[in-house]
Amino acid sequence: MSDFRDIGLTELQSRFQGFLVDGCDNPNDPLPGLVSGTSKAGAGELMAVYFNAYRLRLIEALGEDYKALKVLLGDDGFETMALTYIDQYPSQHYSIRWFGRHLVDYLDNHPPFCDETVLCELAAWEWAPSEAFDAGNDVVVGLEQMAAVPPERWDGLTFAFHPSLRRLDLAWTAPAYRAAVEAGEESPETPERGDDKVPWVIWRQGLDTLYRSMEADEARALDLAREGASFGAVCADLAQSGDAGEAPMQAATFLRTWIEGNLISEISAA
Prior knowledge:
This protein has helices spanning 9-22, 43-65, 67-88, 103-109, 117-134, 143-147, 174-182, 216-226, 231-241, 247-260; strands spanning 158-161, 166-172, 193-205, 208-213, 264-268. The protein is an alpha+beta fold. The chain folds into two domains: 4-115, no CATH class; 133-268, Outer Surface Protein A, domain 3. A hairpin with a 2-residue loop joins strand 3 (193-205) and strand 4. It is elongated.
């Protein structure tokens, strides 16, 4: 049997962390030789306080990041979901801020939660603004920079976008539900599923996190541009799906909207 005097502080901390994260095979004596019981409680009972408190703090953190999801599931349902998530994705980051970063994937791939697509979409909508807020800063392109590009070079223009930009396509009314929860409504209207997915863009301006919905054509153009497609390629794609004669003006309108919204951080002319 080991003794706390026989190991270093680093090893003691490692064993304690292992118990908190993974539990142990012997709950009555979780760290043999390292923890002593008292006349009122055994070693297992004392360590269980830390074990349960650790999980309660993780559940609390998830509830802070996913307020609307917690309301939708209810306290008991959210706790049940969170405990299974903790088992699947133990905290690996020194900051609790990032503990919930895998929840969207978890809800999307693990039954019974994956059977309710509203849960995944609502979680995605709640996580994206926090990602946008924490994203790095970058310069943004102004209209005067675009005006300085010779017309003959517009066809080959490519764009880099602000690091905070996020894109989601949502079938459920997750944004409205989240807004109702944030407004403090006691019984927010349950999210509804639409016939088609609605494209959304989320980004940050200064310290403000912004979002808006888009029409399908703009979302397609934005996605292509983010993938590296040139302005000419975006125009060609719009021409295939709509009025070919209006495609260049439509693309230019989208581009102006993105620049005015501070979404573009760099333009490159071939």
